[in-house]
Amino acid sequence: MTVEKYDLIVIGAGPGGYVAAIRAAQLGMKVACVEKRNTLGGTCLNVGCIPSKALLNASEKFAEAKQKHLSVLGIDVNEVKLDLKKMLKHKSDIVSGLTNGISQLFAKNKVDHLIGSAEITSPGKIYINNGRDKGEFKAEKIIIATGSEPTSLASMPVDEKQIVSSTGALELSKLPKKLIVVGAGYIGLEMGTVWSRLGAEVEVVDFLPRILPGMDAEIASKFKAILEKQGIKFHLGKGVKQVKQTKTSLGLILENSNTGEESKISCDVALVAVGRKPYIEGLGLEKLGIELTQKGQIKVNHNFQTNIDGIYAIGDVIEGPMLAHKAEEDGVAAVEIMAEYAGHVNYDLVPGIVYTAPEVATIGPTEEQLKEAGVSYNKGIFPFLANSRARATGHTEGMVKLLADKNTDKLLGAHIIGHEAGTMIHEIAVAMSFGSSAEDVARTCHGHPTMNEAVKEAALSIGTGAIHI
User: Fold this and answer.
1) pTM of the entire structure?
2) 365: which residues sit within 8 A by CB, 6+ positions away?
3) CA–CA separation, 335 vs 341, rounded Å?
4) CATH, domain 358-462, list 3.30.390.30, 3.20.20.80, 3.30.70.100, 3.60.40.10
């Protein structure tokens, strides 16, 4: 039997893997991409980024109508009903459309789609143990792009019914009366927001004394206040010590992380969203001798190569933020370097976005990180309450915060709470990638009325002063 030989085999068809495969094919390589699911897109498209954003969008529209937000605009909605089954179907239809779209891109770029679980048996060889394409395949180079999986808690074993992961939280067949979210990071707050808008009572528990660890503290504090105003309750500085489970309810015993004092809360569904870890099970890394970090990530050099020649890794399995767009950039850079192009990723300029309402977006160091590093800086803040477009559309919550070097005025970071903050942050991303100063942004003509005028005003406030406040 002839063994199929490729220039490159990518293991994993998430955002990092499928993008790497397509880019490699565009650069003239013969490429195959192995995925254990029957559908392409990985966690992001199937059970992560895309379905969660579909539900965030749908639930926001439901809340607008249900809470009479439209009535002030002269739009009367008499009776608003939730059809959860139809909402979930809408979410699934979006996922199907996008995963099918990747299949079309593979066909267009002549990327072979192999289905099954891959094990690297030796450098240049993989074996698909199960699935449609079981058998051995060879390649000059192999990229590991298997992504990540939810981190579990020993005190809260996930059953995807009463105690759910982020995957299960996207598939709840009925509206919980009360949902406890364990973890106040991006995923926990997004999913908590979805079910809160649809009518569930939502409470968030986190071992740390704040939400959104790693994000600018001022922004996180103001965002917490906004979420509390929306009805979400927080139990911070507390961990889950024990869970008592019955057929219809969960009783959580919380322990104060400082004092050890215990308290109790109950719910009918609990979401465990305490982070993610690299998914490297079954790849054969230990047999190959591939080095890992203490956190279980695959060690790579600046060319994304492991300590074994011909084996590379990208995305969530290596160091760096576990974000789809970071994985995509890794994938492109890795294959461009293989093809002797100047592939590069600036990890200082990877945006982080929380897709709630309002959204939260960040890029560059926080104010706390600048202080810790001893960097002298100036800060500019402009509230959306003073922005004309925000007032006209009713999206006045939040602000733009810019940080610039005190001596050179070079932009160092940006942190935004506001409507479509995730879109707005990219103006700053482009500016920072070219080394722009705050004055450069302040002197750039911004269309009126737009939310982005708040960025201009925040930049002005670093210099001679904002105009509209």
Assistant:
1) 0.96
2) 373, 375, 403, 412, 413
3) 8
4) 3.30.390.30
What span, in angstroms and rounded, lies between the C-alpha atoms of 166 and 187? Answer: 7
163-274, what's its fold? Answer: FAD/NAD(P)-binding domain (3.50.50)
Give the DSSP per-residue string, 171-220. --SS--SEEEEE--SHHHHHHHHHHHHTT-EEEEEESSSSSSTTS-HHHH
Distance CA 248, CA 222 (A): 35
Widest CA span of the chain, in angstroms?
Answer: 75
**Dihedral (C-alpha) 153, 42, 198, 226: value to the nearest 10 degrees?**
70
Give CA 132 to chain center in angstroms.
31
The string of pLDDT tens digits covering residues 92-112 is 999 999 999 999 999 999 999
Average of per-residue pLDDT values in the chain: 96
Q: What is the pLDDT of residue 242?
A: 96
Alpha-carbon 140 to chain mean position: 32
Distance CA 374, CA 368 (A): 10
Cα distance between the two ends of the chain: 75
- In tens, the pLDDT along 118-156 reads 999 999 999 999 989 999 999 999 999 999 999 999 999
Q: In the chain, what are the domain boundaries?
A: 5-150+277-347, 163-274, 358-462
How do residues 189-210 score in pLDDT, each as one tens digit? 999 999 999 999 999 999 999 9
Q: What is the chain's Cα-based Rg?
A: 24
pLDDT value, residue 2: 57
Active-site residue (options: 302, 344, 448, 468): 448
Extract long-range pairs of 53-58: CB within 8 Å, 24+ residues apart.
53/355, 54/90, 54/91, 54/94, 54/95, 55/87, 55/88, 55/91, 55/170, 55/194, 56/190, 56/193, 56/194, 56/355, 56/356, 56/357, 58/87, 58/90, 58/91
Instruction: List, for residues 353-375, the tens digit of each pLDDT value.
Output: 999 999 999 999 999 999 999 99
Q: How far is CA 137 from CA 125, 175, 246, 391, 400, in A?
A: 6, 46, 49, 59, 51
Active site residue 90: no
CATH class of 5-150+277-347: alpha beta
pLDDT confidence band for 1 (50 / 70 / 90):
very low
